[in-house]
Amino acid sequence: PVYDRYQGTSVQVMHFCTLFDRNYACKGLALYKSLMANVPEGEATLHILALDDRTYDVVKNLKNTTTTKLEDLIAQTPGLAEAKDNRTWQELAWTLGSVWGLHCARKVGTICYLDADSFIMSEIGSSYWKYAKYPVALTPHRFAKKDEERLLPNGFYNVNFVMIGPGGIPFLEDWSKACIAWCYNRVEDWRMGDQKYTETLGEKHHAVDINELGINCGPWNAFQYKYSVENGIVYAEGLGRKDPLVVYHSHEFLHDINGNVIRRTNWDVTGEMAELIYAPYELLIKEVVREFLA
Predict the structure, then answer these.
(1) Whole-number mean pLDDT of the chain?
(2) How far is CA 206 from CA 137, 145, 174, 212, in A?
(3) pLDDT at 156 over 90
């Protein structure tokens, strides 16, 4: 345990988990570097599920991480081998989020799942510990009103920054079991991928909503906000509140092998977003290429 400056008590190190393959390795390493830059030394561990051997070789020696191979998780998880054979690679990755989260939570207790294309932009500890006291904390998509009818069938929640605290393992057990049985890129009845499940399971397991604009802000909602910089921290303002940007979800971001941008997103990107969010992320992606993948 270390002394937690946010709660004034001794707590365990923050634990985060993620997963990626060679095609997402640059983004996953950008997540790693941005996370470690925004936590005190030694106070966070990132648990990485490597989806191929190339990724495992790149990340296995990173400081403040653990690394597990996909085949090892499959061997320990009933039904996962069959799931791997009956869905696309994207659908398998969606399936694995809940399975990997459960695997990590059983080992370390409190855990926060992050998608590999997350960009940590400021101090994350206060957000982590604020929601770590709940069994489950989930982030609403916060779609613009004009997009709700079209997009809400995909899920009220976005499954990034999924915070699991004491008592949260039953949620992960139910979620992973459901995803192993069915996790496809289509809306069918009350299901869609992995994220539609979180509505009913969140209610069942008393999940709380994460309302801060800066936690899992993404291009589907970011264009609604105004941005400013105060003391080096980017703030998002809208929907009646103002919050520091902590986790930006760089959904749809594409780059070439040298880290040059091919596409930021298919959503609208305002000038403020381009300057304050995407420009530093693009620099980080190029830094990762030079450091790890050149």
Answers:
(1) 95
(2) 9, 26, 13, 19
(3) yes
DSSP for residue 266: S
Q: How many CB atoms lie within 10 A of CB 214?
A: 21
Tokens representing 258? 């040298």
Helix H segments across 18-88? 25-36, 53-59, 70-76, 80-85
Distance, CA of 144 to CA of 154 (rounded, Å):
14
What is the band of 278 on the pLDDT scale with cuts at 50, 70, 90? very high
Partners of 228 in beta bridges: 235
Residue with tokens 């980017």: 234
Identify the CA nearest to 222 among candidates 260, 277, 275: 277
pTM for the model stands at 0.94
Q: How many CA atoms lie within 13 A of 133 on its CB side?
A: 7
Helix (H) or strand (E) holding 187: strand 187-188
Of 206, 194, 42, give the one whose Cα is nearest residue 115. Answer: 194
Specify the long-range contacts of residues 183-190, CB closer than 8 Å, at least 24 apart: 183/83, 183/87, 183/91, 183/94, 183/95, 184/87, 184/91, 185/88, 185/90, 185/91, 185/94, 187/153, 187/154
Q: What Rg, from alpha-carbon coordinates, does the chain have?
A: 18
Measure Cα distances from 176 to 122, 173, 193, 209 in Å: 30, 5, 12, 20
H-type helices in 232-292, by residue range? Answer: 271-273, 279-288
| 224 to 146, 220, 229, 240: CA distances (angstroms) | 11, 9, 17, 12
Residue burial 88-109, b: 16+ Cβ < 10 Å; e: rest:
eeebbbbbbbbbbbbbbbeebe
Q: Is the pLDDT of residue 108 over 90?
A: yes
